[in-house]
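Appendix B. Raw example, untouched.
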Amino acid sequence: SEEGHRNFPTHNGFLQLIGETQLAMGNVEDAKSAFQRSIKLNAKDKDSHVSLANLYFDIGKYVYSALSFGDVIYLDPEDTEARYMQGLSYFKAQEWGRAASSWEDLLHYKPDNEVVRVLLPQTYYILATEYNRLGNPTMGRQSFKNASLLLSVFILSISSSVAAPPSSPTNTLLNVHRDSSSLGDTSLCSCL
């Protein structure tokens, strides 16, 4: 790939390959540099953006990862994996509002994404706690309502669909909700 890049310096595919090779050898900085140069040569190449976003995620630079996945989404708005990873990156960076926004967008494209349908209410619950902690109870109540609504919709969709395996997270969440409902407590806190 080095020789290919020398022979065809304006073709970003060789830089992408160089980056993948450097990453496989453990040379993270060289890989990052190659992916960035590949993007500079052709900003519309989705693969280079995905590689750079995954690299940032793997080294724990979650905000950079989320921003890079945002570039992927800009190039391909229907890429649901990039939308999920953007939300997960923001979640790991403790950017709760941005994680929620990313995952809400994902659910427009893929409403049956079970992982996001579990994580999104939890994210709103965290947002509610943070807003309340920071002295903004109005936003805290709204976030809590969002979490409760999403959790209710999720549980209703589960109960109307084919039964999940007994040990699945979906069934566990449904059983916890049923148990707490029978006690008369249907708040989000009791479901989580």
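End of appendix B.
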